[in-house]
Amino acid sequence: TSGSLRCTICAGGSVPSSTRHTCAACPAGQYAGAGYSTCMPCAEGEVSASGSERCNLCPPGQAPEGNETCQVCGAGTFAAPGSATCRSCDPDQFAPAGSWECSLCGSGYVPDALRAECQPCPAGRFAQAGDVDCS
User: Fold this and answer.
1) Tens digit of pLDDT for each residue in 62-103?
2) CB burial string 55-69: b at 16+ within 10 A, e below
3) Contact at 8 Å (CB) between 73 and 97?
4) What are residue 26's DSSP bridge partners?
């Protein structure tokens, strides 16, 4: 602090300002522990609010949306823990919104157009597990 004879360590989530007279909060997407001299960027797949001491992984089925928040993956997409983005399921798989993995439909079922769920084959048609269309 200005006029002080001793230095003060900045609390976690903040670092010395450019003038070194005050502490400044780290921006979203960055973090700092107590006594850090610079804010550190979060790793890929992690988020943090402004003034954070650490970054956090998004929960399974969610991926970072910007630096600060996580978004739920939509139907037909998934995100494993630590994923940087929601990824699309393969054509023969499905995933409801918020999924952390895709799954195959069982025999007699195929993924719907959005790959959100399995739909039964019409009467007289059949599909093996993993088929995309009923035949």
Assistant:
1) 999 999 999 999 999 999 988 999 999 999 999 999 999 999
2) bebbebbbbbeebee
3) yes
4) none
